Structures are given as structure tokens and as C-alpha cells.
Amino acid sequence: MADAVTRTACAKIILCGEHAVVYGRPAIALPLSHLRARATVAAGTGAFRINAPDIRADFDIVSDPTRPLSVLSRLTFEALGQSPAAAILTIMSDIPPASHLGSSASVAVACARAIAAYCGRELLADEASRLAFEVEKIYHGSPSGIDNTAVAYEQPVWFARGRPDAGAIIISIPQSPHLVIADTGVAVPTRVPVGDVRKGWEADPARFERLFDQVADAVTAARNALLTSDWPALGAQMNTNHALLQQLGVSSPELDALCDTARRAGALGAKLSGGGRGGNMIALAPDAQSADQLRIALRASGAARVM
Ligand code: MEV
Predict the structure, then answer these.
(1) Which three-class secondary structure string do you get for 54-67?
(2) pLDDT above 70 covers what percent of the chain?
């Protein structure tokens, strides 16, 4: 076994297509490399132990076998063809949980990478993504797989569930859009809005399928705008997507207020990002200087944190 090893994974935002992606429509996610989860594995004694001081968790995978990170650890050792080591996994993360920035996927990818590295292997992005997906299923019920994919590849991804190539295509973006991210400060686990959309879809499948198709059109147009750096067109599709997410019932007064503030302060477009009901929204600025103005306006209007 190796000395103590640390591996990390990034956060993510959904640029457009959240929720509809669970129902087979495409979505685009971007990595946030400056926000990271860190996992360290060091030698220990007895059963493999997991310690996450941020959430005051300290348990071993034998006594607490059903916890998502116990499942992840066991699956990772299994994938490596090894029995769980007598070691301790310590997790630290900059990514606020339940804020729709991919915290659970990022922690899972960092942990899988650290366990593998401790056993002398580096995981391929696809292996880390598949392991993290198993944990996403425990947390979220029916995840599309976009979060673990964007986090494990740390690249912009176009994701459509059910594709033969595991659903994801890495897209290369000629110029990065000037995005500002603002947090409502309201923590909402992804499974809550995902479950509510599911209930809505079960009650009125025709209406929800129509909305998902409209989201897919917006995502396709957004991809073309992203590939041609046509920021006004991308902003327009973000606004359209936000309006559709409102109709899906996953926005909130706080998210709507931050989106309105951003548009009034010069954003080309603004929308909630990820699960919704709380967490983060994103706004597209025409240039770097306008992004500063947006940040100031969003802070002044009560955003809990602005990036
Ligand atoms: C969460 O980041 C995105 C959702 O579409 C859920 C999923 O795709 O699994 C809300």
C-alpha cells in the first residue's frame, strides 16, 4: 500500500437542460475547477474508516455498510480487485452541499480516485464517473448521470442519457462565456425537486413531455450559440430555459428575484442551475467588466455568495 494520497474533483454547473435530461433530453454542464472536493487515504487500523469533519461524519464501512460513501468505497475496492484496506479516508470540500453545484458527485469522484491511488492505480475518468453514478443513485433516486460525468471528465459536456457512448460528448468551447454564479443560500437536496417533477410528469405526462421537448430545443440552440461564441443568442436561450423550468415548478421566489436582478444589471440571460427551488443561479455577462457589475448587483440584492 502507498503512503497517504490525496485526490480531488471539481464542482459543476448545468448551463442548460436540467430536469429534462432525466427524461432523455440533452443538457450541457460545465466544470467549476476552482471549487473542489479533496479526499485523502492514509494507513489506519481495522475496518476502512471514513471521516468527513465538515459534516461531522466518522464511521467505518463494516458498521455502517449502507451509507452512500461506504457503498462507494466497497465498489471501488471491488473494481480494483482488492479487499477494503485498513485505512482511513478523510474528506474536505469547498463545495456547499445541496446547492446544486455537484457536491455529492465531486466527493464521490475524489474518494474513488483517492482509494484507487492508495492501491496504486489512477482511475480513468469513465471509471470514476461510473462509480460516482452508483452513489448518485442512492442520493437522488433517478439521476441522469450528467453530474458525475461533468465532474469526472472536468470538461464541458453535452449529455444525452441512453447514448451508446455512456451518454456524454466532450464539447470544446472556443471561448469561455462570462458566467456569474449566485447562491440563494437556500439548501435543497436535488432529490426533492427531481421527485416533484416526477410527480408532475406522472400526473400530466403530455404537458411535461411538451415542456421537455421545448427545453431540448433551447439546449440545442444554446450549444450552437456556445460553439459560435454568440453570447446574445446564448443569453436568450438561458432566459427561455428558465421560463420552462418555472413551468416545471422548480424555480423559487429567491431564484426568480436573482435572475431578475441579473437581467436588470445587464445580463444577457439568467437562469436557475441544477435542481432548483434553491441553490444557485447563473447569469451571462457580455464581457468581463459587465460581469463585475453583475456580481455587485447580485451581492446587493442578497445573494448568499457570488462567484
Ligand atoms: C442536477 O444537477 C441535474 C438534474 O437534472 C438531475 C439529474 O440530471 O440527475 C436536476
Answers:
(1) HHCEEEECCCCCCC
(2) 97
Q: Find the catalytic residue in 147, 213, 287, 292.
A: 147
Any ligand 1 atom below 6 A from CB of 12? no
DSSP assignment letter at 252? -
Confidence band for 167, pLDDT divided at 50, 70 and 90: low
Residue 162 has pLDDT above 80, yes or no: no
Question: Which atom of ligand 1 is nearest the CA belonging to 29?
Answer: 2
Cα gap 40→121, rounded to integer Å:
14
Q: What is the pLDDT of residue 163?
A: 55
Whichever domain contains 201, its CATH number is 3.30.70.890
Angle at 214 between CA 209 and CA 219, to 5 degrees: 120
One domain for residues 101 and 15: yes
- Do 301 and 237 fall within a single domain? yes
Other Cβ atoms closer than 10 A to 67: 17
Say whether 256 is catalytic. Answer: no
Our CA angle for 53, 56, 61, nearest 5°, is 90
Q: How confident is the model at residue 164 (pLDDT cuts 50, 70, 90)?
A: very low
Burial-class residue 217 by CB neighbours within 10 Å (0-12, 13-18, 19+).
middle
Closest CA to 197 of 15, 25, 13, 12: 25
User: Do 271 and 282 form a contact (C-beta atoms < 8 A)?
Assistant: yes
β-bridge partners, 183: 280, 305
Looking at the fold, whether 146 and 19 belong to one and the same domain comes out as yes
**Contact 179 CB / ligand 1 (< 6 Å):** no
pTM score, two decimals? 0.95
Residues 152 and 118 in one domain: yes
Secondary element (H or E) of residue 178: strand 178-183
CA-136 nearest atom, ligand 1: 9
Q: In the 8-state DSSP scheme, what is residue 131?
A: H
Q: pLDDT of 179-213, one tens digit each?
A: 999 999 999 999 999 999 999 999 999 999 999 99
Range of the domain at 219: 178-306
